[in-house]
Every structure is written in C-alpha cells, then in structure tokens.
Design goal:
By secondary structure, this protein is mainly α. The chain is built from 4 helices and no strands. It has one domain. Helices cover 49% and strands 0% of the residues. The chain is rod-shaped and about 65 Å long.
Amino acid sequence: MLEQNIDEIAWSDLSQNPNAIHLMEKNINKIDWDYFSKNPSIFEIDKKQLKIDIEKEARIINRIIHQ
C-alpha cells in the first residue's frame, strides 16, 4: 500500500520504522535523517567479527595485567 502511495507518506514517521528500510533505500532523498538515525534497523552487527575483536582486546588486556 505504501509503495503505491509514495507521495502520501509521512517520511519523518516512516524514517523511524524498522520495517520500512526497503522503502527508504529506494527513496533516499525523502529520508528524515534525524529520525532515521534513531532507527535500530539501520545497523547490522557482525557478531562473528565482534567476537574476534573482543577476544583480541581481551588478550591485549590480559598481557598488560600479567606483565
């Protein structure tokens, strides 16, 4: 329904909607960036890389503590 009524969308509200990323990707010029920055769906966490980074930092901290 939204796709068929793009001109009727309240982009400030939609920019906050985690389920509307696909619409915003197609209409970047209409995004309300202040609201969009609060949308939790704009971030993708690479859990595998995060684990590697945390383990690396833990090894560094462990070496510092045990010097």
